[in-house]
Specification:
The structure is a homotetramer. Helix content of chain A is about 35%, strand content about 35%. Chain A is an alpha+beta fold. Chain A has a single domain, classed as Gcn5-related N-acetyltransferase (GNAT) (Aminopeptidase, 3-Layer(aba) Sandwich). In chain A, strands 1-2-3-4-5 form a five-stranded mixed beta sheet, sandwiched between helices. The first copy, chain A, is globular, with a radius of gyration of 15 Å. Strand 6 of chain C pairs antiparallel with strand 6 of chain D. Chains A, B, C, D: It comes from Parasedimentitalea marina. Chains A, B, C, D: InterPro entries: Acyl_CoA_acyltransferase, Diverse_Substrate_AcTransf, GNAT_dom. Chains A, B, C, D: This is GNAT family N-acetyltransferase.
Chain lengths: ~150, ~150, ~150, ~150
């Protein structure tokens, strides 16, 4: 991992970088979102509120190269909350330099600081680059996901 | 579906039934939970609070035969929340009578009433009885789940 | 398992039963096959030749209720051959009576009699009734199947 | 793809290269095989017999960098045989240069020359480098594999 890699909370002045990185991430899922969603998301991420999504940004030599969005939420199987890592993105230009791994570790540390011992995320079965990392730092569960969109 | 099947919110007087059903559900996952977790869970479920887990109970001819636990939570990809169905259980003695399907539909209706258009849940890849139902009422996504337990 | 359940090699006089059972099996895969394929298949199955497909039929009280088609073939990782179970079918009317299990065991015994220690088959990920049985009598491998049809 | 990439049938003088490449491939599966299996396998591969495994070797500028082992065998659902690609290996040092793809295409052409229209193989669900290629050149089927080893 580069000495110059920094993981820190998202800040208001990161908006342009954040929009660029999240747009690139959403493209990976063939998704575009309306401006209203970008504004609402960024506003929530800046609240630094344990009941809202929080954001981390990764910089290398001061250049924003990755992001993570996570939410603490209730789980009924424990009295403590759990942490859901919803979005994780590292610029393909810096892949292999530990940015994704450092972002996951950053989220894990923030969860632990809030007394939250578990962290989970979902990924598409065929996300091979992502899974190559996840197999090293996490446990694959036997769970799959069903959904209903009304 | 039986005429006598009723899906309704969990109530304080359901505690004994709820403990029986949830214990049976947790056994399916080879899980036991401490008394503290049962108490905290039941207390939260009774709050009828859109930021906490909510519970539905299914009765047939007045006998409690199933339950569902769900949570509305933020999603960053939309301005509306999403609905996470965490626990779903139908007494094996009433399997095939539409209890599970009615519970999912009950959760879906409560999400819609809160302007929440999407509902999702996780299930183990080898939960064949569950998936037989889920394939009929929902979409299997390509998502799998990773976790870190510190 | 019923006392009256018999597993035996396919015989020429089984043709009508075999056609009925294999047709039902193929329907499960939304498949119909031309008459030429039925004739060639039945002819090969009757050869009792270790280089061709072989067939077993299951009868309960003399009524044909299931079939298995298997092939011994080379594997390069061993000097012995392996056994591929291509088709396995039990009439849905007799499900739960051990017909599928007895057919698998019948194939396994015939492989062992030919000094073939391993038996494998493929099934669709969502074949829940089948997998319920297979999980009890076999090991699920991490292998999935790719194909090219020119 | 390099101009200098050649796909050709395995020959007796390839034995040292073939042993090196197959050993490396088997290491990927944490497998070692006894000398007897190597000898039997190589002997069968040299037979150029449509009822035995056949082998292809890939060379770049005359250096052996990959291999494929395949078997034509009966399928009961058609009057023609099918082609099973059992082993496919490209030296990691030449990954990304089209060696694996050219070997698959070589097998496909040899199957077509024998009037065999279909080609299939199995791979571990978590073989991400392999699947990255397979997703481009083949169809992922919904089939998974069960086995019994007596």
């Amino acid at each position: 991992m580069s000495e110059a890699l920094v993981i820190r909370p998202l800040r208001a002045e990161d908006e342009a970088d954040w929009r660029r990185l999240w747009t690139a991430y959403l493209q990976f899922y063939d998704t575009t979102l309306p401006e209203e969603v970008f504004q609402t998301a960024f506003s929530r991420l800046l609240e630094q509120n344990n009941r809202e999504f929080q954001g981390l940004i990764a910089t290398v030599d001061g250049v924003a190269v990755g992001l993570a969005h996570f939410l603490f939420h209730r789980t009924l199987w424990a009295t403590t909350d759990t942490c859901y890592l919803m979005d994780l993105f590292a610029d393909p230009n810096v892949r292999g330099q530990g940015v994704g791994r450092a972002l996951i570790e950053g989220v894990r540390q923030r969860a632990l600081a809030a007394d939250i011992p578990s962290l989970y995320w979902m990924t598409q079965e065929f996300n091979y680059p992502g899974r190559t990392l996840y197999d090293k730092v996490a446990e694959k569960t036997p769970f799959i996901v069903y959904e209903i969109n009304s």
